[in-house]
Design a protein that fits this description.
Number of helices: 10
Number of domains: 1
Distance between the termini: 31 Å
Shape: globular
Number of strands: 4
Structural class: alpha+beta
Order of helices and strands: EEEEHHHHHHHHHH
Helix content: 55-70%
Amino acid sequence: MEEMKRGTAKGFSYGGQAVIEGVMMRGRGNMAVSVRRPDGRLEIRREPLAKIYRGRLRESPLIRGVIVLIETLVLGIQSLLYSAQIASAEEEEQIPTLALWGVAAASIAFAAALFFVAPLLIARLLDTYIASDFVSNLLEGFVRIGIFIAYLKVIGLFPDIRRVFAYHGAEHKVVNAYENGCPLEVEAVKDYPTAHARCGTSFIFAVLIISILVFALLGRPAIWISVASRIVLLPVIAAIGYEVTKFGASHSNSILSQVLLAPGLMLQSMTTREPDGDQLETAISALKEVVEADRSEEKEEQG
């Protein structure tokens, strides 16, 4: 869910995400995944994006937030599954694709339950002590944020996740370098920061904050209605969160934007690590792949 000011001639903003032993980059018309194989070689796959990810709706306010959410889930899962297969290429048995999709579906369900349903149930346990609907929803929101931060702390203890976080840092360094016109070379990009204004972590934090305000308007209906609302309204909240994050990153010099972006940027210290040279090389190769593909398409369109 990253975006950049500097892009192709048409001003497209590049971005991507970390995957298992690699990085995925999303271009104007293509995506590329670069994964480090067990033998040290880079495996790069590029494929064109579906029309829904590159049409006019992708640039329409609010609607684009929903499309980006779908895009992030679909492309992210596809890239993770691909990277998992490449990373396990030299093992005796590769992980079955169906099993990987099952894990992905279970992970999404777990995330929805942990970050949206669980905070609601915890807050409702205290209903007899809370007279105000607003206070109850406010408590739910703080519990949700607390669970999210605790979750990041816990998963950051695992070595494999720390490597993914390092690839996340590599992705940010590379997009920051490209954004500033820096040559895409390891030595040139290594000193750029691991934080980025349009990071998915900032987007998620915006969603958590906005969810407090949205759910506060609903009062305290029956528990089943409340649970359903947390799921059904997620695309709406994501759409608003995307616009807030996009506005903050596009006006990063204003005091308001700096206030909006500050919590997300602080959280990025938990989801990124300082990458090594190989990880930077992996991120660079993915970005180069989509930039070159987009430039070729532009030449064809102009010629």
